[in-house]
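## tool: complex_structure
## caller: assistant
## args:
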Amino acid sequence: MNKLYTFVEVTEITGIESSTIELFIHQNWISPVEKNSLDEEDLARVQLIEELRSRIGTNDEAIPIILHLLDQVYHLRSQIRRQQCSLN
Amino acid sequence: MTPSAASNPNPYKILGVSTSSTQDAIKGAYRDLAKKYHPDLNPGNKEAEAKFKEISSAYELIGTADSRSKFDRGEFEAKQNQGYGARNTQGNPYYYQTQEDGGRYNYSFEGMDDELLNSIFGRARTKRSDFPGQDVLYQMDIDFKDAVLGAEREIQLESGKRLRVKIPPGVDSGTKLRFGGQGHPGAGKGGPGNAYVQLNVRRSSIFSRDGDNLEIELPISLSEALLGADIKVPTIDGSVLLHIPEGVGSGTRLRVKGKGIQRKGKTSGDQFVRIKIVTPKSVDSDFKAAVKSWSERYAENPREAWIGNEEGVR
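## result:
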């Protein structure tokens, strides 16, 4: 779960260039825990952002709003899942 | 002509376009479908995920003029489990999947909906069984020197446990160090969360930093500037004797090699010493007379370069 990927590895896996990753960091769309590497959460988030931008055509202004809303939804889902676990 | 082998369904049909549609129309159709079926917008919905994979594979085939003409000529390779839609078959999950048990990015919402959740789940909420522990973020202020040289510190975790924090040389404010499994304990079969220590580097009253180099300002007297001197200057790990060449000017930067940030396996930074000439606080009449006669003998205009420059001062 805690595997770390260097930017080069991320490019190999996803085709997303280091400069794009740096842009995402600069925009605060991702905040990697360690310099110059991404964990699995960051990697998946980078892919989502890149899909929103290049595949779906979302403009950059909307990216942080979408991420914020998604993170809220995911948080609620994890909370609800926890409650279900405790009820069962 | 479009291949219609059962293993390769018709991408035009999947995207709802015709073989005569423009490239823009295909792109638009894909976008509309991707917005609807993207797995991160439909977390946990297997149908949407399958649909997204299908439209993404179709788009791989006819999404660009190049790939489309190949496909139309029947020269396509059935790429299995490749492209955007199918990445989690490569062991690479969708974003929502990394957040299912609470992730770093939704940690900031912790506690936000407690009231709502309590009202739905009531007292049962306190009886949790299996779930992983939360991550915990600690803040740590460190001295400038420790950020440059690296250091070891100890912090006390909420649990009372003490944790040794190794600070690598050259860290910046905002750097987060991770300690796997040192967060809140999980319940039941859930593993513990992680602890993160975010560093905040205090400013130094003497040193400033530019990348891996350090810089200080060294005040020297007029006579030291004119005659040269050997002066003890502070570096980040003790002082060194620095030779000031005679006639040095204000603003001159002298380099003390290897006294910047030293990273393992990387080129090392240096310390720069910026000269600041300080004129005497009190000047008696003898001194004034001496300077006056000296300046008459050695008339020199330090602004010579400005002469003739239209922006210059005569």
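## assistant note: The helical segments of chain A are 7-14, 18-26, 40-55, 63-87. Chain A is about 65% helix and 5% strand. Handing back to user.
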